[in-house]
Amino acid sequence: MNEKIKVELLFEKHINNTINDEELFQLHSFFQTGNNEEQLNRLLQAHFASEVPSNILNEKSAEVADLAWIEIQHNIGLKKPTLMGRISWITKVAAAVLIFVSLSVSIYFILKNDPAGKLTSKNITDIQPGTNRASLISSKGTVYQLNGEKQEIITENGIVRYKDGTLVENEELNQNLTLSTPKGGQYCVTLSDGTKVWLNAASSLSYPATFSGKERRVELVGEAYFEVHHNASLPFIVSTMGQQIRVLGTSFNVNAYQDENKTVTTLVNGRVQLSREGNNEAPQLHPGEQSVLAGAGFEIAEVDASLFVAWKDGQFRFKATPLTEVMRQVERWYNLDVDYTGIPADIQIHASISRDKKLSTVLHALEKITDLKFDIKGRSVKLMR
User: Fold this and answer.
1) I need a surface site. Which of 11, 22, 178, 246 has the fewest CB within 10 A?
2) Distances (CA, A) of 40 to 45, 59, 70, 360
3) What positions does the domain Protein FecR C-terminal occupy (predicted)?
4) Residue that wins the pLDDT comparison between 375 and 197
């Protein structure tokens, strides 16, 4: 059977409440893969066009599908079933997948009662997601505002240029440089040795325009993902608050925000050696391992590394992540001021959310899976009581 026809038949069964759990999961999976939003829009319009203006359906149908999938992920905890737990897991999926029924079919009721499309909390003024924004600061204090459309700079032979070849500055910058992103910004830089660094929001990376001597040393505040060019004779060293990472050639993520009170190093591949000031401890990480340095010493555990580097590929990914930590990521990416008073410390989030969504979509998803409500005034966010 043609896939398009099959989807239309499943959608018709879905609307008429005659669809089973397996068919519903197939239908939802179709709308979560590929570029199928247009077909979802057409199907929704065919059923609801007489009641809901098409422009609102076009805007909100994808959001409804997103919210449904986020809630399903949270309810099943992103866990695959074991043989022993298969029955209970299927029960959880069956219950969770009903969310998609209620959300997509009730789009008519949502939009009819909320024609302005306000799907989230009180006093919401929607805020766009972060973009490619950064500044480059020379050791002389000169500040260069980087072009957000270019996304990446390359430092080579003292010359800083964008990836397309356009120069950031006409003269050579043979000095120490600092790439700095604000809240709501991110950027990428290729260093003079070929190492590539993705810098997350509210972060800074200090590095020489040209590496010299017996090592390649950079300093990081905030979060960055590194793909280090291999050179056994010139170790690559990342200095953060209270920690040093010694690298030969590897890919890893470092989270060293000052307001986190810890440094988290996650190794994707290769090998790194960690050290800290005033201590002889020097553990090595292997792929899939993570080190947390928070005062007493290094704590090392096996993790799903993809969760901690997803931001580089435009995703928030949470697995048993405390809500307070989730909100700190949201705060940095959307350039917010979050009041953490009253936010429960014991709530954990399981979800995958695109970082290109508007703030209202992200907060509404968090509200749906936590039963909390957020109050937004300007760029200030607090928990509603």
Assistant:
1) 22
2) 8, 11, 17, 21
3) 316-381
4) 197
